[in-house]
Amino acid sequence: MRRIALHMLMGDTGKYFGIVAGVMFASLLLVQQLAMFAGIMQQMYSGISAVNADIWVMDQKVRYIDDSQPMTDGQLGRVRSVEGVAWAVQLYKGSVQAKLEDGTNVGVALYGLDDTTFIGGPARMVEGKLSDLRQGEAVVVDVMSAMDKLAHVNKDGTKTPLKAGETLELNDHRVIVAGFCEVERGFQSMPVVYTTYNRALSIVPAQRKNLSYILAAPQRGQSAEAVAARVGRVTGLAAYTSDQFIAKTLNYFITETSIVINFGLSAFIAFLIGTLIAGQTFYNFTMDNLRHFGALKAMGAGNGTLLSMILMQAALVGALGFGTGTGLACLMGLAMQDSMISFTLPWYVLVATGVVVVGIVTIAAAVSLRKVIRLEPGIVFRG
C-alpha cells in the first residue's frame, strides 16, 4: 500500500511539486520572519548579555537597557554597603556625537567603565588591551564601526579603516583610539566606544546625575536573586539579575511596542498561504485519484488503510517542504550575515516552524480524508 500511495502521489508531477512548493514557501517565510524576530529580540538585550555582571542596579523608572535614568554617584556607596554584596562598580551608558573628517556627525554609544577594574568592558579585544584605557584620553572602538561608520572617507568615496593611535572627536573632545574590540550588534546599530568612567563624564555635558547603572556581584555562597532583592529593599533602587533584566527588557518591547504584531501578522500570512496552496492542491490531487481509492475500497481496503496512505503522502510532502524551505531560509541568513539585517536561528524557531508545518499538512490531509472516507466503492464501476 505504501508503494501504491507513493506512485499515486508522484505520478502527477505537477500537483506533487505544487504541494511541496506550498509547504516550502510557508516554511521559508516562517523561518525567515521568526529568525529575524529572534535576532531583533537578541539585539534588544545585547547590552546586558555583553556585560559580565550578576546584578544590575538602576533607577526604579528604567524600563529597558537603553532607557537609563541617571542616578547620583552616592548610590554606589549605598549598594556597596548592603549585606551580601561582594563588589559594586559604576557604569556610564549614553550617546554622544562623533565628528568625522568630512564634517559628518555620527551617533555613538559611549560606555564609561570603572577606572580601576574596567568591569563591563568588551569580552574580546581584537587589537590592544582593555588596560590601555589607562593612557591619557584613550578609548576602545568596536572593530566593525572602525571599518565602516567611523572610517576615513576618501575623495573617491572609498573608506580607510580607523587605526590605533589616531584621534577621534567626541562632543568636541579629542580622544585617542587605543584599541579595537568585538561587540554584539545592538538594535540601533550605533558605533560603540569604551573609555573610563571619569573620562566619559568629561566628554558628555555636565549634569548633577551621571551614574547610569551599578554593576554588582553577590558574595560567595549567596544567590544573585536574593542579593538583588535585598539591594532593592535597602536602597529603594531597582535591582535585577542579568536574566531578570533581560526578561524585563524583552517584556517592554513585546508589550509596549508593535513588533510582535508586525512579525506575528507576517507569520500568520505565511501559514495562511501555505495552508491554502497545499490544501487546495492536495484536495485536487485526491479528487483526481478518487477512482483509485474506490478501487482499493472495492478490493477490501478499509478506511484505516486509506487513512494511513493519505497521512503518509502528507507527511512526505510536509517533510520535503519543511526541509527545502528551512534550507533556503538558512542560505538567506548566510547571505545577510554581513548586512544590517538581523538573522538568528535558535532551535525553538525550527521547532515552531515544524509545528506549523505539521498543522498545514494535517489540515490539507483532513480536507482530503473526509472525501475519501465517505467514498462509495461503486464509483469505480461508473462510466
From TrEMBL:
Pfam families xrefs: FtsX (PF02687), MacB_PCD (PF12704)
UniProt domain ABC3 transporter permease C-terminal: residue ranges: 266-377
Membrane topology: Multi-pass membrane protein
Keywords of this entry: Cell membrane, Membrane, Transmembrane, Transmembrane helix, Transport
Transmembrane segments: 259-285, 306-335, 347-369
Subcellular compartments: Cell membrane
Residues in MacB-like periplasmic core domain copies: 20-232
The keyword Oxidoreductase is annotated on this UniProt entry: no
InterPro entries reported in the protein's UniProt record: ABC-4/HrtB_transporter (IPR051125), ABC3_permease_C (IPR003838), MacB_PCD (IPR025857)
One GO cellular component term: plasma membrane
Protein name: FtsX-like permease family protein
Taxonomic lineage from the root: Bacteria, Pseudomonadati, Acidobacteriota, Terriglobia, Bryobacterales
